[in-house]
Amino acid sequence: MNRTVFCDHLKKEVEGLDSQSYPGDLGKRIFTNISKEAWALWQKKQTMLINERKLSLINQEHRKLIETEMVKFLFEGHNTVIKGYSPPEK
Fold this sequence. Notes:
Blueprint: E1 4-7, E2 12-15, H1 24-33, H2 36-53, H3 60-75
Antiparallel strand pairs: 1-2
Helix pairs in contact: 2-3
């Protein structure tokens, strides 16, 4: 049976993550309060952020920036703006 959570990002009761996807206390908070759907949205946004800003996960400062943006996106309703990115026209 799938577990459900009240997703802080989507503001509704939806399917939760299967396991903790991020380490530490923040990972526990994400597991408890973020849905699979919201996590997938963040993963997409994170990939764009890494690619457009040419970030490296080896770099401590870059990891901190990604984590800060993740918290703002998932918990504070902030839509991470990727400088230099414009969505494809329909």
